[in-house]
Design goal:
Layout: E1 5-11, E2 15-21, E3 27-33, E4 38-43, E5 51-57, H1 59-69, E6 78-81, E7 86-92, H2 109-113, E8 116-122, E9 125-128, E10 141-147, H3 148-158
Antiparallel strand pairs: 1-2, 2-3, 3-4, 4-5, 6-7, 7-10, 8-9, 8-10
Length: 171
Amino acid sequence: MGTPRLSSTPLPGIGVRYDLTTREQRRLSVVAHRDGGRTLSAYRTDDPDACALSVRLSAGESAALIDALMPAHHSPNLLSTTELGLVAERIELSSVSHWNGRVLGETRMRTETGASIVAVLRRAEAIPSPTPDFRLAGGDTLIVIGTREGVETAATILGRERAQCTRPRRS
């Protein structure tokens, strides 16, 4: 029985391609694009150079697929937990979020929840220790650390959508 082999190839201006050859000699590849998206490709068994399937995934779709491949006891966005009762979780900020375009300090996250936003992932960039004047943007993934309850409350606050303005109907 063969062992799976994984190799990576830098793709200048694009990202990185990861190639996996399974123990059954099946070939899969993932191109990790600089914008956070992924392209998943599977190759034919009778011709390992012929692509049988290629799917472009957004960063959110990629995260959902990763969660599906993880063990059942894994919480989808849970990064880690400690004996001290702290958890670290990824929370994606929606483009329709109330906080899109606002500064981090306006969330009053630490004051309201006791949880801290310790980093922001934006496209292919990581911003560690964002300051209160850091401007949030839809699509950002926030790394939040705190108690389970604090992180869940933070997710609720960050999930708040922008108020919709409605115009009165003309008669």
